[in-house]
Design a protein that fits this description.
mainly alpha
Length: about 55
């Protein structure tokens, strides 16, 4: 039976944490750009929430 490669598993976990941290930092620095790819076919949220007089619908 093969021996588990714990070093590889640890490195993969570290890379995943680093990737998530980078994504979080990107979302924090560019909140408008980070939200757009998730809902391309949906209209923008801010204009839909306000009416013509500026009150929320």
């Amino acid at each position: 039976m093969a021996k588990p490669n714990y070093g590889f598993e640890k490195r993969q976990r570290e890379l995943e944490k680093k990737r998530k941290k980078a994504e979080k930092a990107m979302k924090k620095s560019n909140p408008q750009e980070a939200e757009q790819p998730q809902s391309e076919d949906a209209p923008a949220v801010a204009p839909a929430e306000t009416g013509q007089d500026g009150a929320k619908a």
